[in-house]
């Protein structure tokens, strides 16, 4: 299958679904990773233009660990809206990558970039199938399945599926550690060590399903988006 993971910022995918992407890659799936925002606001000292460059390089380094294609940085942080222009950009991302499955944010996650990313993915993945909605790329013949990844700290999120990532947690950590610009930022702004934060959530989800570490998901269950089989590893 072709898998597209769409986060709001560089490092969101690594925090919330990288272990699952590793397992999907191992079973032979083709992986695409995208961050809609550049991550240009996430630092106290580094200015936006320089931070954009740094975070692009960090995202590329992380994606290379699993041989994934990387794209994104279409918008500045806090400058992403469910507008016609943004919808066309995300539609083209979907038409270009032609995914069978899209993994993205839970619509009620903790901040606007995350929730807007989720809504854009939902709307654009439908628009991508419509020939008369003209963008740079040709329409796709099917609506991709959408799977929501966990919320930050798992708050207000009730999983419907789990993936055991116990055997790939070290690769997930390695991918997350590529985002070194965020280690200091998240310590100062949010008071967290992002590796410890990630492992705590993975351990909590693992306890729920009887393994050491797990990632949690919810399938987007609406007409035209449900299949009678499991697509997660």
UniProtKB/TrEMBL annotation:
Gene3D superfamilies: LmbE-like
SUPFAM superfamilies assigned to the protein according to its UniProt record, in alphabetical order: LmbE-like
UniProt-recorded Gene Ontology molecular function terms: hydrolase activity, acting on carbon-nitrogen (but not peptide) bonds, in linear amides
Origin: domain of life: Bacteria
Name the UniProt record assigns to this protein: PIG-L family deacetylase
Protein's organism: Aerophobetes bacterium
Organism placement in taxonomy: Bacteria, Candidatus Aerophobota
């Amino acid at each position: 299958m072709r898998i597209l993971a769409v986060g709001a910022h560089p490092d969101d995918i690594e925090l919330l679904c990288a272990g699952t992407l590793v397992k999907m890659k191992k079973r032979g799936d083709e992986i695409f990773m995208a961050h809609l925002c550049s991550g240009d606001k996430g630092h106290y000292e580094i200015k936006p233009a320089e931070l954009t460059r740094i975070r692009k390089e960090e995202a590329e380094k992380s994606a290379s660990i699993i041989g994934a294609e990387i794209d994104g940085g279409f918008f500045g942080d806090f400058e992403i809206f469910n507008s016609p222009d943004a919808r066309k950009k995300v539609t083209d991302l979907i038409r270009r990558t032609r995914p069978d499955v899209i993994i993205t944010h839970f619509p009620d996650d903790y901040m606007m970039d995350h929730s807007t990313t989720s809504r854009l993915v939902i709307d654009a993945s439908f628009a991508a199938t419509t020939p008369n909605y003209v963008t740079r790329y040709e329409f796709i013949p099917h609506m991709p399945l959408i799977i929501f990844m966990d919320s930050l700290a798992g708050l207000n999120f009730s999983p419907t599926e789990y993936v055991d990532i116990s055997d790939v947690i070290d690769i997930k950590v390695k991918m997350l550690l590529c985002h070194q610009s965020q280690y200091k930022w998240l310590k100062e702004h949010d008071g967290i060590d992002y590796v410890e934060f990630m492992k705590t959530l993975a351990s909590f989800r693992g306890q729920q399903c009887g393994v050491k570490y797990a990632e949690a998901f919810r399938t987007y269950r609406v007409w035209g988006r449900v299949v009678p089989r499991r697509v997660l590893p």
